[in-house]
Amino acid sequence: MSQLLNRKSAVVLLIVAAILFPFVFNNEYYLHILSLAFIWSIGVYGLNIIGGYTGQLSLAHAGFFAIGAYSLGVLTVKVGLGFWLSFLLSIIITTFIGFLVGLIALRTKEHFFAIYTLCVGYIIYLIIYKWEAVTEGVRGLIGIPAPTPIGPITFDTPVSQYYLMLFFLIVVIFLFKRIVNSLIGRTYVAIRNSEELAQTIGIQTMKQKLISFVLSTFFAGIAGGLYAAFIRFIGPDISYINVTFDMLMYLLVGGIGTLSGPLVGTLLVVGVSQYLQFLQDYRMIIFGPILVILIIFYPTGIVGGIQNWMANRVKKAKMSLTKKVEAAAAKEEK
């Protein structure tokens, strides 16, 4: 009970700290970086649900992120629809395309699935790059509108945009937590641990993997739409494979298959990258070895390493208590 209260108290404290951050550090640069980190975190949560919990490495995640971004951009700039309707439609479009891709991609397994999704991601990049009539090709889409006001609430300042991204991040984390702690989430873990064993106990693995893949594209669509609205200019580079590898790096650093890993990893890597910005291209000389060492010694990421350390402490405490009880019982017998 006390552990549950402490955990809830920590979550409430973090949310309050995030809400108060603009008042304590009224710096537009910090707000811009954190807003971007929140957007990337949402995308990484999508990658975590298919890769961390279901055990399927999707390398097309940046492609679905770009579909969400370009869907919003095209619907608002070229079609002329309102922002929030376009945002909703961009998520639906991304999720539907994810469903179609998943129907074929999930017929493959392990590294074949990764290779297939890598090819899908590159095809999405080529379509965006070459379809100039819709995407403007290499020039990119410019003039994407900011989120329109909701009643008296406007989103035309860095602070208001920061709170909007924070709101969507909290909603995504809440949904993610409900999913992974449900029977569906346990089903995903069973498939990750052994797909053959999951089939023997009656789990429809193909159906569950498809749902997981669609959910990952759903989160990617949200992140892509928010990114387009926040940056207000998008180019084909957001769909390239290096964006997927960046999100995968955030996930590995934070902790793959954990609840808070995507947020911790994204905030940490983005923060360190910005801190080393003055080194320009040479920053990877410092950041690269640190990342390699972290993955070698903490293969489950920072959050996973902390969880393992805490579990070992509890285990040792229980063993120590058991020994004391056995020793006391032995003395009484004498």
Automatic annotation (TrEMBL):
InterPro entries recorded: ABC_transp_permease (IPR001851), LivM-like (IPR043428)
CDD domains registered for this protein in UniProt: TM_PBP1_LivM_like
Signal peptide feature range: none
Record field: transmembrane: 9-25, 31-50, 57-77, 83-106, 113-131, 159-176, 210-235, 247-272, 284-306
Record flagged with keyword Cell membrane: yes
Record flagged with keyword Cell membrane: yes
Keywords: Cell membrane, Membrane, Transmembrane, Transmembrane helix
Cellular localisation: Cell membrane
Topology term for the membrane: Multi-pass membrane protein
PANTHER family with a match to the protein in the record: HIGH-AFFINITY BRANCHED-CHAIN AMINO ACID TRANSPORT PROTEIN BRAE, HIGH-AFFINITY BRANCHED-CHAIN AMINO ACID TRANSPORT SYSTEM PERMEASE
Protein name per its UniProtKB record: Branched-chain amino acid ABC transporter permease
Species of provenance: Bacillus seohaeanensis
